[in-house]
Structures are given as structure tokens and as C-alpha cells.
Design goal:
The protein has 553 residues and is of the alpha+beta class. It has helices at 2-9, 12-41, 76-81, 103-106, 158-203, 209-240, 273-289, 302-333, 338-350, 355-378, 393-417, 421-429, 434-461, 468-471, 498-507, 512-552, and strands spanning 50-55, 61-75, 92-99, 110-114, 127-132, 137-147, 150-154, 243-248, 254-258, 262-266, 292-293, 298-299. The strands form three sheets. Strands 5, 6, 7, 8, 9 and 10 form a six-stranded antiparallel sheet that branches. Strands 1-2-3-4 form a four-stranded antiparallel sheet. The longest helix has 46 residues, at 158-203. 27% of the residues are buried.
């Protein structure tokens, strides 16, 4: 007994208890990340397409073509209660969820089938998966390739004939998108700027014939540029509409698909391992580099990545000086008394305020009050349409800066308190003023703590969603906050965010089952973005820490 008492007094049990708690926490974190990675990254693997025959409840038989999405063991009693005919000696049955695609024809992407009613799965190499711009994937057999309505190749040679037409269609689609979103978008933007300039002249009573002539000449030049682009766009669309493919689906019906509506065509069953790995990596790249489609359930998430990173960077630029100035005042200038203690308590309490409250504050103060004043003062020509008096990137960043401000203040104060008093006294003794001491000695030495506060702020702000829904984030942004149009950075624009994208795809999608893997993939991507931002900040902090460690000693 005395040995046990001595063991407890030594503190060894508590060390082991803490180690066990840390180990459990790490296992839970890495387990969660592993689950997200497996569920999310598995979506991009080019799965084989199965073909089988199944029996309906009424006894009719039909062919089934698609991807095995999920399978599970279920109770035979439960299925019998739901009217499924099963042999009496079965206790459990495998139930498959098969993605049959062709939603515009079948009305649903998925088919539930019980293993008892299925024949053996086969994997014909001729089966194709067509990734479309609308209506999701399409599965079947390639029958023929058409051009201008005439069959140019059919049968076994159709796949070889398809490749040059598919590459050409992808190039034309990329060119059309560049004209529509880039060049024509730029022309429309400049036309709008001319309209606002004319309105400004009218408000200032400066719309002279000379100014009007200049505006008309610029407008005519832009109109001419637009007509050239419109003709080129029409020509490209006509060229794109020439080619199509004929696909035979599981019901035996042949469907013609224009290549203008096709993103890619693959034959997963005919791919080797290396080819599948290449396709897998290409699918991941498309996911992180392309725009979303089909109500965010298809395509990529690049606008959301861009919006998340840009918002966090602007937030960090705004919150760091505010937090440092507040912390320096409280630690170095403010008289330590009841009022200062009350301010510190208020700062600590602000860290516990629900984030949605900050969103309401941002909407009321930043958007309606401050943004409305900016519009009336500087953008009168655009009224009644708001410029800054509407949710946007600037107000979202400011709202999150206020939300994370207490974290930066507390971390900076802790860093300032650890600077030895002798360093301040030595600087003052050498003739430096208090401000020079702070600016050249104290704040640089406290910079690792400031970076720690910024790391914590980035980690919290990057994952916030609730306040952003009120102050700037949208389901689909028509354009990025940064483009080639002056002034190039548009802080008034709405933006996409990875956190809101997860919420939208997971809970607002019209096709939840098909979009579920994208929720995991986007969640993993959000974690990686936060980790990348934090690693950059940690790297800077470590360099600063090494730089000033000798001085602290």
C-alpha cells in the first residue's frame, strides 16, 4: 500500500493519464481526417462500370449499368416487411446502391438492388462514362460518332474516332468560356464604367458636349469590340455543335449526346493501373482548378478556394495591427487599475460571443451604416444600386477581424509581458524614447507571440460560416474578386467560401446522395488550406523566435 501511495505522490500516474488523453485526442483527430480523406479522395478514382441483370418485385427482368456506389448487409426480415421477395432461409442480404446516372432519362441517379435479385456482375470494356455539363454522368455503350448529323464511324472503331473530336470539343469549350467570362465580361464591365462616368458628369453638372463625345466614342469602340467577339463566339458555337455521339443505354434505347454538352468521355473498365492513376490525379486537379457546375454538385471548387484564402489574408492584414495596437496600449500605456482590468475582462468575454452575433453586427454596422455612407459619399452615380452598401469581401473580412481580435490582443499581451524589464530600461538609458523602445525593441521581440495570435485567428476565421452568410458569401459567385479589370482587386464583390460550400452541397443540394463524396472532399480541402496557411505563419514565427532568442537570453 505504501508503494502505491508513494507512486501516486510522485505524480507518475498523472503523467501517464495526460499522455493517454493526448494520445486519444491525436487518434480521434487523425481518425477523423483519415475518414474524410478516404471518403473524399475515393470519389475521384475512375471506378469500374458494372453490367448485370436484376429482377423487379413484379418479376420483370431488366439490365442494370452503373457504378457500385455503396453496399451493406441488411436484415432479410426487414426487407421482407418492405415487400421484397426473398428465400425463407436467408438471415442477411447484401443491398447495393448503384449509380446508374442518365438522370434526364431515368429521373434518378441511383438504383437500389438486392443481391438475391442480381445476376453475376460483369465489366465489359466497351462501357463508357460520359461526364456532362448538365444532368450528371451518362453510362452506356458507344454506338457511333456523328458530325453534322451524319455517322462518320460506328461499332468498334467509334471509340478511336471519338478522341480527336473530343479533344477539339474541349478546346472549343475552353475558348468559348474564355470569351464569355473573360473578354465579353471585360467589355461589359467597361461599358458599365462609362455609364457610371456619364452619371457622375450629370450629377456634377459637367456633362459638356466634349465629355459626351468622348464617352460616345469610347462606347462605340467597345460596341465594335463586342460585335467582333459575338461573331467569333457564334462561329465557335456552330463549330462545337457539329459533333455528337450516340450511346446505347441499359434499356436498349439509343441516345444522341452533343459534344457541346460533354466534359469528358472515359472507359474505366479498359484502363490499366497506371492509366487509372493518371486519370485519378487529373480528376483531383480538375476539382481544385475548375468552377462548379450543376448547383455545386459537379465540377471544381477553385472560386471557393480563392475566396477563402483571400478573405483570410485580408482579415489577417486588418486584425494584426488592430490587435497589436490595443495590446500595446493596455500593457505599456494604460494605467493599471479597475478600468483596465474591466477592459481586459471585456476582451476575454468577446472571445466567447457566438459568431452569428458578429455577423449581425457586421451586417448592421459595416454593410448598412458604413457601406451606405461610402456609397452616398463616393459612389453616388451608382445609386440606388449599392456598391459597398451590400455584403461583400471587405465586410466579411472586417467582421472576421473583429471576431478574432480578442485572440490577437491576448496573445500579444502575453508576449509583451514576457519581455524582460531590463531591456526596456537599457533602451531608455541609451536615450531612446518610449515609442522608439517599443517600435525597435519590444514589439520585434514580441513578434513570435503576435504570430501565435495570428495563427489562432487564421485557424478560427477560415472555418467560420455563420457570420459570412450575412456579410458576403454566396452559393455561386459570377466572378472572382480579382480580375484584369481596373482596379483589379474588387473588395465590394461577393465571394465563395469552402465552409459555406460544404454546407450548401451537404444540406441544400437537390441530389444529396451524389454530392455526399464532394462534402468529404471539400472538407479535406478546407483542412488542408487551413494547415497550409498556418504552416506559413508558423514558419515565420519560428524564424522570428530564433532571431530574437539570443537577445532574450
Amino acid at each position: 500500500m505504501s508503494n502505491i501511495r508513494t507512486w501516486f505522490k510522485s505524480g507518475t500516474p498523472w503523467i501517464w493519464l495526460n499522455a493517454a488523453a493526448v494520445s486519444m485526442s491525436l487518434l480521434m483527430v487523425f481518425g477523423l481526417l483519415g475518414l474524410i480523406a478516404v471518403r473524399g479522395l475515393g470519389y475521384f478514382w475512375p471506378s469500374d462500370i458494372v453490367e448485370t441483370w436484376y429482377t423487379e418485385r413484379d418479376g420483370t427482368r431488366g439490365k442494370l449499368i452503373g457504378e457500385i456506389w455503396e453496399n451493406e448487409r441488411v436484415s432479410a426480415v426487414q426487407l421482407k416487411e418492405n415487400g421484397v421477395q426473398l428465400p425463407p432461409d436467408l438471415d442477411f442480404v447484401t443491398r447495393y446502391l448503384i449509380k446508374v446516372g442518365n438522370r434526364d432519362i431515368y429521373g434518378s441517379d441511383f438504383k437500389v438492388a438486392v443481391a438475391v435479385g442480381l445476376e453475376e456482375f460483369t465489366f465489359p470494356k466497351e462501357l463508357i462514362r460520359v461526364e456532362r455539363k448538365e444532368w450528371g454522368n451518362f453510362y452506356g455503350y458507344l454506338v457511333a460518332v456523328k458530325e453534322d448529323g451524319k455517322v462518320i464511324e460506328s461499332g468498334e472503331d467509334a471509340w478511336i474516332a471519338l478522341q480527336p473530336h473530343l479533344e477539339k470539343a474541349q478546346e472549343l469549350s475552353a475558348r468559348i468560356e474564355d470569351i464569355e467570362k473573360g473578354q465579353i465580361g471585360s467589355v461589359n464591365y467597361r461599358l458599365e464604367q462609362l455609364r457610371l462616368q456619364q452619371r457622375r458628369y450629370e450629377l456634377d453638372n459637367e456633362l459638356t458636349p466634349e465629355h459626351l463625345a468622348e464617352l460616345d466614342a469610347a462606347r462605340a469602340e467597345l460596341q465594335q469590340e463586342y460585335e467582333v467577339l459575338r461573331e467569333e463566339l457564334a462561329s465557335l458555337n456552330r463549330e462545337l455543335a457539329r459533333a455528337s455521339i450516340v450511346v446505347k443505354i441499359q434499356t436498349g434505347r439509343e441516345v444522341e449526346l452533343p459534344l457541346a454538352k460533354v466534359v469528358d468521355v472515359t472507359r474505366p473498365n479498359a484502363m490499366g493501373t497506371m492509366e487509372k492513376i493518371g486519370t485519378y490525379l487529373a480528376n483531383i486537379w480538375h476539382f481544385v482548378s475548375e468552377d462548379p457546375r450543376e448547383a455545386n454538385t459537379e465540377g471544381g471548387v477553385f472560386p471557393a478556394i480563392f475566396g477563402t484564402v483571400m478573405m483570410v489574408l485580408i482579415m489577417a492584414i486588418l486584425v494584426t495591427p488592430l490587435g497589436v495596437i490595443a495590446a500595446v496600449y493596455l500593457r505599456e500605456y494604460a494605467r493599471q487599475g479597475p478600468l483596465t482590468r474591466l477592459i481586459r475582462i471585456a476582451v476575454n468575454n468577446l472571445a466567447g460571443v457566438p459568431s452569428i452575433v458578429y455577423g449581425v453586427f457586421g451586417l448592421g454596422f459595416f454593410v448598412y451604416f458604413l457601406g451606405g455612407w461610402i456609397d452616398e459619399t463616393f459612389y453616388e452615380e451608382a445609386l440606388p444600386a449599392p456598391t459597398y452598401g451590400t455584403p461583400g469581401l471587405m465586410w466579411a473580412s472586417l467582421t472576421l477581424a473583429i471576431l478574432t481580435l480578442p485572440v490577437v490582443i491576448v496573445a500579444t499581451e502575453e508576449g509583451l509581458s514576457r519581455i524582460p524589464k531590463s531591456i526596456r530600461e537599457g533602451s531608455l538609458a541609451l536615450g531612446a524614447t518610449k515609442f522608439e523602445t517599443l517600435w525597435r525593441t519590444v514589439i520585434p521581440m514580441a513578434s513570435p507571440a503576435i504570430m501565435t495570435g495570428m495563427i489562432l485567428a487564421i485557424a478560427r476565421a477560415a472555418g467560420e460560416v455563420a457570420p459570412l452568410m450575412l456579410v458576403g458569401v454566396v452559393k455561386l459567385a459570377p466572378s472572382l474578386p480579382v480580375d484584369g479589370n481596373s482596379p483589379f482587386i474588387h473588395l465590394d464583390r461577393k465571394f465563395m467560401h469552402l465552409g459555406f460550400h460544404i454546407y450548401d452541397v451537404g444540406f441544400q443540394s437537390p441530389n444529396v446522395e451524389a454530392a455526399r463524396p464532394l462534402v468529404y472532399a471539400t472538407s479535406l480541402l478546407l483542412v488542408l488550406v487551413i494547415v497550409a496557411l498556418n504552416l506559413v505563419a508558423i514558419g515565420v514565427r519560428n524564424r522570428l523566435r530564433e532571431k530574437y532568442r539570443a537577445l532574450e537570453n
